[in-house]
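Take just one protein record:
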Amino acid sequence: MKYKKELDDLAIFGGAPVFDYELHVGGPNIGERARLLRRINDILERRWLTNRGRYVQELEEKITNLIGVKHCIAMCNATIALEIAIRALDLKGEVIIPSMTFVATAHALQWQEITPVFCDIDPETLCIDPMQVERLITPRTTGIIGVHLFGQTCDVEALQEIAKKRGLRLLFDAAHAFFCSREDKMVGSFGHAEVFSFHATKFINTLEGGAVLTNDDVLAEKIRLMKNFGFKGLDNVIFLGTNGKMNEISAAMGLTLLESLDELVDINKRNYELYRQFLSDIPGISVRDYNYNEKCNFQYIVLNVDQDITGFSRDDLLKILRAENVLARRYFYPGCHRMEPYRSYNPNSYLLLPHTERLNQQLMQLPTGTAIGPSEIEKICHIIKMCVQNSEALRKLLESKHEMIEITNTIEI
């Protein structure tokens, strides 16, 4: 096994990368290829490619049974699913959401001229803080969108109590939480509705896709109409809608991966436990915990880098790893509130988001999933450990490299 022995061996300082191929945080899961191809061939033979064909209906049925929810409406992607759910719930005015989320959560509101009001997070769960939600409610508030982050569920009970007491709609962005549970109840069954993402990088993917889940019969019927232009029967449009339909090949991919669900969980869990094992005794480096008492997909390896202890920043480590072809990521940096158009609308919103601000400087995600194995994990952890053990020398090398870049840029100018 090829290891880096000295800091000078690191690729950022001119050494050869430890990996000659890129390791991604979200390398797509594929499932059993032969089964997928059989389904695709059947789709082509049937010549029914979209418009809620056999495989989309089967996928929806399997998900409702798995989650224990009445309705699953498959969609072309999770952003459209969010937009339709928001519209179907008649949200308007202001909706409270965390800034620690993918920008699509905010955009799905702003796209419909609804103001996302950014709320701080609980630093332990990384999910929206119900106590802060209460303080942000105004006469213009119509709803709350909680985000289950990195497989960790929101404080669902507290949010439901607030929503009920204040007459608000409660929607959950569950993009990270497929096959996760809270108090033995599956994610997908909370609030008025929940939205899953089946993007290629997610635990279960449909190449590109998403779904809205709900136990509300009236809401489900409304969403089904809205995702198909408002059609109810042939040539009969009764509602304003758009095109949110999932195609048959996407559904075939999802069905194939559902058949490998337990295997995918086992691989993610193995990777998580290896990272925990190799990084457990490194000062300033910690891997965020999963709750073994609940169902979990173990999809994300979330690393916290405490610069006061390590002697270098999260971003320094990110650059070091990326030079080695370890394409670690910063989810969700720098926070929606610091992205456009939101930073222009409210440039001082960061003052109300201290936990979001701090953790956005410390958190990073490491590669996992079916595209990575024990040997890759051990090499990644060895690099991290070597950096921490030699932090003072590393800091000097990084400063020297930064100075050299500045000199080079000055000469070029």
